[in-house]
Amino acid sequence: MDSQGQTTSLQRLQNVEKRIVKVLELAGGVMDELASPLGPRKDVVQNHCLEFMQLIKDIQVALRDEIKSACEYRPFEKCDYGSTIANEICYKKVELIMSQLDAMKQTIDDYHAAE
């Protein structure tokens, strides 16, 4: 089974939530750096921005996968209820047609017997 199948959807969404918190912390760190009285340190801002963008990309991919997974979820996919009911309905229709044919045959036999 793949790694996505080994964890539940809720666990994967909790991981996304943790990434969102980290993104907000990074954004706050950049804001603190930009507000520094000594001026922003370019390398710190650049590293935070790179990590921020990578986390945003990871979040988008994870959410897209979860949405796709939810859309593909078919809880009754292997259920044979529909086909079973369809077979029972067909069986009842055949019984009805057979009884009507028997009645028609009886009418024809009665007609020929009366002649």
Task: Write a brief structural summary.
The protein has 4 helices and no strands.
Describe the structure.
Its main location: nucleus. Keywords: Activator, Nucleus, Transcription, Transcription regulation. Pfam families: Med11 (PF10280). By secondary structure, the protein is an all-alpha fold. The chain has helices spanning 3-6, 9-34, 42-72, 81-114. The mean pLDDT is 88.
Low-confidence stretches: none
Number of helices: 4
Structural class: mainly alpha
Classify the oligomer: single chain
Question: Average pLDDT across residues?
Answer: 88
**Percentage of helical residues?**
over 70%
Q: Order of SSEs, N→C?
A: HHHH
Major sheet attributes: none
Shape: rod-shaped
Q: Roughly what fraction of the amino acids lie in strands?
A: under 5%
Instruction: Note the gap between the termini.
Output: 77 Å
User: What is the number of E strands?
Assistant: 0
What is the C-alpha radius of gyration, as a whole number of Å? 34 Å
